[in-house]
Amino acid sequence: MRHKDPELMKEISRFVENFYGSRSRMPSTAEIAGEMHVAKSTAYNYLVAMDKEGMLTYRNGEILADYMNQFSSWSDAPVVGFVPCGPLTAEEENIEMHAKLPTALFGDGPFFILHAKGDSMQDEGIEDGDLLVIRQDPSPEIGELVIALDEENQNTLKKYGGKDKKTGKAILRYCNKAVYGDKQILVKTLVSQGVVSYVIKKK
């Protein structure tokens, strides 16, 4: 069997887990192929390879639910709308749906999920339309990607750069040098809603 892309295998695994968590059934091979934008035969070959590597249990064209028994606990993660990856803007928080994340893979929450909007985080692999799994954390580490509020309670996604030596303000950095150069935002007080734990790529 030809070498399989490990990133695609991870994406399939996440899709299967999220699908099962939200619908209480396994996706079909055709549903996986549609979500991954690959041929059904390609999806089949990946599932066979993932079965051999112990990533899931695939028998007679179906993923067995027994595979999910390893996940004894789940975290509820509401999908709450968009976060701008660009200039600060006010976004209304509306819960679209609830997803279940297996703690064995994602760790302990609490989590929430946002749609990325804009282009300022492309150097970190985040594009417009990606889904971001956010772990609530009021005290991010330098270098983490943070959902932060400014003094007017507007939110944005940026990389936390620590404290500015001259002003003592918190640094929120853009991560798209081709478009924004070294642009950054300085805020008097960093109010963190959470940090990015996982990025689920759009298709």
Plain-language structure description:
The protein contains 5 helices and 11 strands. It has about 200 residues and is α+β, with helices and mostly antiparallel strands. It folds into 2 domains: about 60 residues, Winged helix-like DNA-binding domain superfamily/Winged helix DNA-binding domain (Arc Repressor Mutant, subunit A, Orthogonal Bundle), CATH 1.10.10.10; about 130 residues, Umud Fragment, subunit A. The strands form 2 sheets. Strands 4-3-5-6-11-7-8-9-10 form a 9-stranded mixed sheet. The chain has a two-stranded antiparallel ribbon with strand order 1-2. Strand 1 and strand 2 form a beta hairpin. Helix 2 packs across helix 3. About 0% of the residues have low confidence.
How would you summarize this macromolecular structure in one to three sentences?
With 203 residues, the chain is of the alpha+beta class. It has two domains: 6-70, Orthogonal Bundle (Arc Repressor Mutant, subunit A); 74-200, Umud Fragment, subunit A. Helix content is 23%, strand content 33%.
